[in-house]
Task: inverse folding
């Protein structure tokens, strides 16, 4: 029999500590939609997505009401569109518009997969797709783009890094009247996971099944609240145990939601992504968890150590709670989506340099950082290259989602609204890296790649 | 299949009868009731059988939430599996 305390604890987690399932993401393979005629290819995509995902939103909403657990987003991730473009040729924007139509038809919040995987080089379709990303993001509301420019196995494609610096800037410029939202929908990855349910970087990897359901959990507020009750002299290892216990419960809930969704939609269950994904709501912040561990402000010395422990404890707690763990799994540190990070950045305690160090131990990378609009494309490429290098050498996913705030300077702010939040423009080191970026070529794979 | 109905709010006359009345209308059998009053606050938990519910659980849940709002009560209806999965291995 369930006891009253357990009922109260669950209700409190949901009502006061913002516990939610962040996303149910349906991964759909579009390989069988490829056609040498781009219009036929687009028609097949529309038919397939609107057929297999037609009940996704309703199923999510039903589960939400029956189990009393908020499911914030229902999303779709598709096969990297560059692969279809490689077969069909033609104007990549046709694909972006088709995906947008699909998103509107089935009512999802986002559709990810306007993507290319170019860690080792460009194949047919890749370069054309990357060139089209800024326009695609400006012309659509729901489409998200990502490009994988490096991996531990392949090294870093510096030609792609150079190109992406330009595209990030262009994406912001084309949407400067809408708070540069274009750049917020573009992620540049190293070691991109193929089953990530979180946006903007979700795509359906080529090794995946035809259609799967992946679930991304959340719950920084719950972890923070558990830590807030701990006495100030509790040793760090005991804090880690508290985090593990909380992460276990959060993940069990995600596992349950995923299992039910997969059964009702008659689609195999893929993975649970055990992530602490913050929202701008006060209290639902990863930075506050770190501060609860004993830091005055996130960004102070000790932040990287606290984040490393948090990231690890979340995985240890979650892994036993789920049959299949995947995606990014860990603690996200997006600046604009996290009230504590925003505050720390405004105070000047959290700098881009500190964030870069934190990305060596968090689950992704430099996420939702707003930089001055006059930052050169080469410097953005430099930021991407540094992040990719951290990911490549440490065999982990890293990413850059930087938003150049066109026409704005340090001290100004961009406001995206909703879950994307708002972020202060952060100072960027402006020393030039132009010659290095212009070299292009590749950074060879590190020794870590030679595991066989 | 069972669900948990939780009712939280300021104590007043008729809460138990109102909530059980709504359950009866939906053909949900009340299996167990626990209630306490801490100072002025009323907290009640009901385990109900939902196998013969005459409307979808999602609609019943929304209906109960709205019923609660009219009387300044917070009412949640949640499938028991969420508690089982979060608190039991």
Result:
């Amino acid at each position: 029999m369930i006891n009253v305390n357990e009922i109260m604890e669950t209700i409190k987690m949901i009502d006061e500590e913002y516990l939610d399932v962040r996303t149910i993401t349906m991964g759909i393979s579009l390989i069988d939609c490829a056609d040498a005629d781009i219009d036929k290819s687009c028609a097949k995509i529309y038919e397939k997505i609107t057929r297999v995902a037609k009940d996704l939103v309703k199923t999510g909403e039903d589960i939400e009401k029956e189990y009393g657990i908020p499911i914030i987003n229902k999303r779709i991730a598709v096969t990297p569109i560059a692969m279809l473009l490689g077969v069909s040729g033609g104007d990549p924007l046709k694909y972006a518009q088709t995906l947008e139509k699909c998103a509107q038809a089935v009512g999802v919040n986002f559709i990810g997969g306007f993507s290319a995987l170019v860690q080792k080089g460009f194949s047919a379709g890749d370069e054309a797709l990357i060139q089209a990303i800024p326009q695609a993001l400006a012309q659509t509301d729901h489409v998200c783009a990502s490009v994988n420019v490096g991996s531990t196995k392949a090294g870093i494609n510096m030609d792609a890094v150079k190109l992406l610096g330009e595209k990030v800037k262009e994406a912001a410029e084309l949407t400067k009247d809408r708070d540069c939202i274009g750049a917020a929908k573009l992620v540049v990855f190293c070691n991109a996971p193929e089953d990530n349910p979180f946006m903007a970087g979700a795509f359906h990897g080529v090794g995946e099944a035809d259609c799967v359901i992946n679930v991304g959990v959340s719950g920084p507020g719950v972890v923070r609240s558990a830590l807030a009750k701990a006495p100030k002299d509790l040793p760090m290892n005991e804090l880690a145990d508290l985090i593990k216990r909380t992460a276990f419960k959060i993940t069990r809930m995600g596992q349950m939601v995923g299992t039910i969704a997969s059964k009702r939609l008659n689609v195999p269950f893929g993975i649970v992504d055990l992530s602490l994904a913050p929202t701008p709501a006060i209290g639902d912040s990863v930075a506050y968890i770190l501060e609860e561990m004993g830091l005055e402000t996130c960004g102070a010395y000790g932040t990287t150590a606290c984040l490393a422990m948090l990231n690890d404890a979340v995985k240890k707690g979650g892994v036993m709670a789920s049959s299949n763990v995947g995606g990014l799994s860990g603690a996200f540190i997006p600046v604009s989506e996290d009230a504590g990070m925003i505050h720390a950045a405004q105070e000047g305690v959290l700098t881009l340099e500190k964030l870069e160090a934190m990305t060596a131990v968090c689950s992704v990378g430099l996420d939702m950082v707003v930089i001055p609009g006059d930052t050169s494309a080469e410097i953005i490429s430099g930021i991407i290259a540094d992040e990719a290098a951290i990911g490549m050498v440490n065999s982990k996913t890293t990413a850059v989602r930087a938003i150049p705030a066109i026409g704005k300077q340090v001290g100004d702010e961009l406001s995206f609204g909703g879950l994307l939040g708002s972020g202060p423009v952060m100072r960027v080191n402006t020393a030039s890296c132009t010659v290095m970026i212009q070299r292009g070529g590749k950074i060879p794979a590190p020794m870590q790649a030679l595991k066989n | 299949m069972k669900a948990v109905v939780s009712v939280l709010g300021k104590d007043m006359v008729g809460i138990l009868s109102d909530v059980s009345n709504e359950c009866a209308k939906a053909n949900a059998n009340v299996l167990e009731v626990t209630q306490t009053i801490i100072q002025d606050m009323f907290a009640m938990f009901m385990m109900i059988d939902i196998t013969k519910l005459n409307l979808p659980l999602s609609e019943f849940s929304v209906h109960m939430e709205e019923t609660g709002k009219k009387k300044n009560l917070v009412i949640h209806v949640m499938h028991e599996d969420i508690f089982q999965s979060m608190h039991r291995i």
The domain at 217-449 of chain A is CATH 3.20.70.20 (Anaerobic Ribonucleotide-triphosphate Reductase Large Chain). Chain A has 16 helices and 15 strands. The interface with chain B takes residues 2, 4, 6-11, 15, 61-62, 65-69, 249, 252-253, 255-256, 260 of chain A (CB under 8 Å). The two ends of chain A are 51 Å apart (CA to CA).
